[in-house]
Amino acid sequence: MFHNYDLQIDIYDPKKVIILIYRHMVQAVSIKNVSKNDKSLEIEWNDGEKSNFHFMWLRDNCPYGVHPTARQRSFNLLTVSNNIHPKTYSITQDGKLEIKWSEGEHTSHFDPLWLRNHCYTINNKKPYTSPYVLWDARLKDDMGKVTVECEEVMNSDEGLIKWMEQLHHYGFSLLHNAPTEKKSALKILHRISHIRETFFGTPFDVINIPKPNNTAYTSLGLRNHSDLPYYEYMPGYQFLHCLVNDAKGGLSLVIDGFHVAKYLKENDPSAFEILAKTHVKFKDNDYTQNKIRIFHSPMIKLTKDNDFSEIRFSVATMAAMDCPPNEMEKFYFAYKKFAKLVHDDEFAVKFRIKAGDILSFDNRRILHGRTEFDPNSGLRHLQGYYSDRDEILSRLNYLKKIEI
Description:
Elements lengths: L1 E3 L2 E3 L4 H15 L2 E6 L3 E6 L4 E5 H6 L25 E6 L5 E5 L5 E4 L1 H6 L2 H4 L23 E3 H6 L1 H13 L2 E5 L8 H5 L14 E3 L15 E4 L11 E9 L2 E2 L2 E5 H11 L1 H9 L2 E5 L8 E5 L2 E3 L5 E4 L13 H18 L5 E4 L6 E5 L3 E5 L2 E2 L5 E8 L1 H11 L5
Helix pairs in contact: 6-11, 8-9, 8-10, 9-10
């Protein structure tokens, strides 16, 4: 039990725990002093930390300038001048910062906890912590970290959070014991959000067919790759639902592209830099379509914090390179080195997907493939779905009550 004076709260009631934590934080965070500079207010907190808030930032973030139900900013920044400033400022009896502005006869009140949580002075001094757990072939011995039961996901938000956190942190998850009827994964995926349509249809059937328009629809082995890299915004997540797998061969492979990129950066930084800056041309010329898709992108993309954002890799859908002549040899040296690494067994987790499994993975991080299978030995039928990465992250934010 948590104890707060005479208040006792069961830790298994998440809503009550959140209320208790919030009350504790409100009590712990208070404004000790406020002073005015030329363009900002400086706040000294009760714990000794200091924050600097620019006048325009404060006016723009006044809580009264947010629509109560739309939860979007209604304040128009263009209605005030660049010279706006506090006429007066003070701390109210309930601890809020009150500002009476020089323009518009407007008064703002700021909750101290909100100000502290959104303090860009303090937040920009915090070291960045990556949310990603990088892994290699050794994860095969600890698959419990990336598995979840369908029943958990369908029957509780805790199970859904567990699944999505595996997807976010590890980049992939194996969901067990789902139904095996066609399109039955839709109900499970809708626990997250809507799915993303592509020209392959929803779901798309991964089976051996005559005259395939994609090598996935053959019994051939598939080199490790990202799906649809020729889209400007390629799908964030892919879900492969196994309905039946009686064929010999056809083992599934997943590779953490972020981990391979980190390995390349540490062991050959020049090759890493080339792949992070050189735009590769990806293309799709599907004979069943009335479109030709072309998109240029580096194979490795980084975030503003220099963390990994995206891996785009597909030998099958890479078009003829058209980088400057003096860069071609360097590019192919780096490209071959990366290609060799993403097909190295040291980085791959290999397993046999079985009926009722849903292999889920971040398509912009995890490279996936399969070994060849014998179509005469039995049926192998998977159904595939796509979802945008935003849907996973935003659903997690909602369920975990992330403050914005």
